[in-house]
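Chapter review: from sequence to fold.
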Amino acid sequence: MNCPSCNKPLKPDARFCGHCGYQLTQKPRSDVKPRDLFSIDKNETSITPREEITDTDDYFDISSNPFTEDTDEEGWVDDRKIFGEEDDPTVIEDKPKKEDKPAKKLDSKTLSKLKAKKRTGPSPIINLFTGIQSFVLLCIVSLAPVYVAYNLKDKLYLQIFLVLPLILLFFWPFMRNKGFTLNVIFKISNLWYCGAIVYLLFLTKKAGLAPSIINQHWNGFLIQIDYWLLFHLYFAFFCQSLIFYLWRSNVNWLLKVTPILLLAYSLVELLIQIKTTSTIFNLGNDQNVITTFFKPFIGDFGLYLSPHFILTHAFLPLTIVILTFASFLLLIQKKWSQAISSLLYSLQGVIFISIYLMPYRNEDISSRILSLGPIIDRIIKLIFESIPIII
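The token string follows.
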């Protein structure tokens, strides 16, 4: 099938000619041909709708198309938009490109400030203050054991045993970059001295070692210091350290105040007992202030409310569990120094609780506490007998 107008071959289902635009579905108008719409005068650079279009000029004639041929006529501009202004490769930018300026060199003062901001650790002043604080605490803790070692002149092995933690100070300059700080040395020494005093307490009974360290008059006052008093001082120092680190921790204020109040209540009986004797065998009995006050109301149940019972059965076990759990979490986070500190504190708590539980080995106190069982049984039996009456 060919086009009736241009005699070009067409497809069988074509509706118009793709070459000349002849419409095949209906009869074209006689006065206007589709090809006339594309005719243009060769001598004119632009046409207007009012100008007459002739049939002799073919728009698709390459030689007569001003848009496809180069023209020498001045003033003609190809304003067709194929690209956007930002993507058109023919557009020449009026503004010159900004030249890359060389980077400015920082002076030493600005460079030092930038390096200081990048530091994640504490400043040298804080490290110096922490080191001085740990060294002073180490001197306070080691003063009593060193004096005890000085008095044990005829027992060389006990002297070495007491002064052994001070040897760690010689290794500190070589290992401080690996996390072996003065704070860790202080905690190791504190735990070591506490264990040494416990060992000396057992020696006072088994080996016949004199428990007294100082027993002399000074300016009209009698000064008496023994191993038990040193042990109580170590425990007071341990409790103050716990309060200090608890108060600095980022926890809720209620979690800070509650253990402090519990500790203050637990130390009442111990502080009163130290006025008369430094031993602990009379602690936890029914002669303490709290048990005596509640005895007319609740009887032997007042033993459970005694400060020493709460100290050994509530505060110290809870402290040991929390410190052990904290050391485990810090170990997972690879905070080695803090993990070791918490672990040493928990081990020191184990030593304290093992000693302060000694009064409950007393047969009188143990029998009175165990006798609360029948009382509880009678109360439970009374409650079960009252249930049918209430119903």
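Two observations follow directly from the output. Residues 301 and 376 are 10 Å apart (CA to CA). The two ends are 109 Å apart (CA to CA).
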